[in-house]
């Protein structure tokens, strides 16, 4: 006897929790003049790939959730495709020397609407805004991403003072928790990153009134692209920063107690002395699912 459709869908949702996630961040890297997968990507997409290959019902569910795809070059005549939802998901490109004048193949860029990159130029120390030079750089970027609507500047949380990321604890922003189990020294380490970025579609008024602006409305209108921050709370240290921000948001009376955290130019060592940060990862026992060594070349074939 077959389960009712509602129960079958619930089973698939339990198997693939991201089926009910509103928005995700998919990370890639720029290395040796080419775009490659980030180490988290194979693990992040493992369950989705299993959904695609199980049978027609699970594949149909997976493709409804992630109807679009980006392609990365694996070598001569070999392209890996990663499924995503272009309206909500953010494609992030990490580079040690961020710039916007990289080559972007049609397979990678054609369907991207939301793109994140580390700050591509120096930001004014006083206003923390991009300069007019961004106009020219974005014009070049749009050649490779013709459907681009939003450009996000991705900041690690510990590199920015509190006033630039207060909005992250609101319920009116997008949040995506990336969790990965990683083997090492006989244990499996549980690592996390929390991404926060404005939800302009659902909460445009909050975004424009509360989220720190990176350039003026006039500049964004001239570019035809909106530019906003995306904050990455990395590992245990970053999550502790977020938890502290949330505590103060819910209990403002704690602000005086957490004064080092509230300094505009805080010293990270002050936070560690106050036990607000706990560097490292959570070690968990053996038995957790591990990422296969060869998964980086088996992302999506269709």
Give an overview in words.
This protein is α/β, with parallel strands linked by helices. It has helices at 5-15, 41-44, 46-54, 56-65, 106-109, 133-144, 204-210, 217-223, 235-250, 259-262, 268-273; strands at residues 25-31, 34-37, 68-75, 78-84, 90-94, 114-117, 150-156, 173-184, 187-198, 226-234, 282-284. The strands form two sheets. Strands 1, 2, 5, 6, 7, 8, 9, 10 and 11 form a nine-stranded mixed β-sheet that branches. The protein has a two-stranded antiparallel sheet with strand order 3-4. The protein is globular and about 55 Å long.
* Estimated share of beta-strand residues: 25-35%
CA distance, first residue to last residue: 32 Å
Query: What is the rounded Rg?
Result: 20 Å
Q: Determine the mean pLDDT.
A: 77
Return the string of H and E elements. HEEHHHEEEHEHEEEHHEHHHE
What would you call the structural class?
Answer: alpha/beta
**What proportion of the residues is helical, as a percent range?**
25-40%
Largest sheet data: 9 strands, mixed
Number of strands: 11
Shape: globular
Q: Low-confidence runs (pLDDT<50, min 5 residues)? A: 123-127, 262-302
Q: Number of helix segments?
A: 11
Protein name: 2EXR domain-containing protein
InterPro entries: 2EXR
Organism: Claviceps pazoutovae
Pfam family, one: 2EXR
Labels describing this entry:
302 residues, alpha/beta, 30% helix, globular, disordered C terminus, 2EXR domain-containing protein, 2EXR
């Amino acid at each position: 006897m077959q389960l009712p459709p509602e129960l079958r869908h619930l089973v698939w949702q339990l198997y693939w929790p991201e089926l009910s996630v509103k928005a995700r961040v998919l990370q890639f890297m720029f290395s040796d003049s080419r775009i490659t997968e980030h180490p988290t990507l194979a693990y992040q997409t493992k369950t989705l790939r299993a959904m695609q290959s199980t049978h027609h019902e699970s594949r149909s569910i997976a493709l409804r959730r992630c109807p679009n795809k980006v392609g990365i070059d694996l070598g001569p005549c070999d392209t890996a495709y990663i499924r995503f939802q272009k309206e909500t998901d953010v494609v992030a490109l990490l580079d040690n020397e961020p710039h916007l004048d990289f080559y972007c193949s049609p397979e990678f860029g054609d369907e991207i609407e939301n793109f994140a990159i580390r700050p591509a130029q120096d930001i004014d120390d006083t206003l923390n805004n991009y300069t007019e030079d961004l106009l020219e750089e974005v014009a070049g970027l749009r050649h490779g991403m013709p459907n681009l609507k939003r450009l996000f500047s991705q900041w690690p949380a510990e590199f920015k003072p509190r006033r630039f990321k207060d909005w992250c604890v609101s319920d009116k922003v997008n949040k995506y928790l990336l969790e990965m189990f990683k083997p090492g020294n006989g244990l499996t380490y549980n690592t996390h990153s929390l991404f926060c970025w404005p939800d302009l579609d659902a909460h445009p008024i909050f975004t424009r009134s509360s989220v720190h602006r990176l350039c003026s409305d006039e500049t964004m209108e001239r570019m035809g692209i909106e530019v906003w921050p995306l904050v990455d709370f990395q590992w245990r240290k970053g999550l502790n920063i977020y938890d502290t921000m949330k505590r103060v948001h819910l209990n403002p009376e704690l602000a005086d107690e957490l004064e080092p955290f509230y300094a505009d130019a805080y010293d990270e060592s002050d936070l560690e002395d106050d036990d607000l940060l706990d560097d490292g990862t959570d070690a968990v026992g053996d038995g957790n699912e591990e990422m296969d060594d060869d998964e980086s070349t088996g992302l999506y074939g269709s």
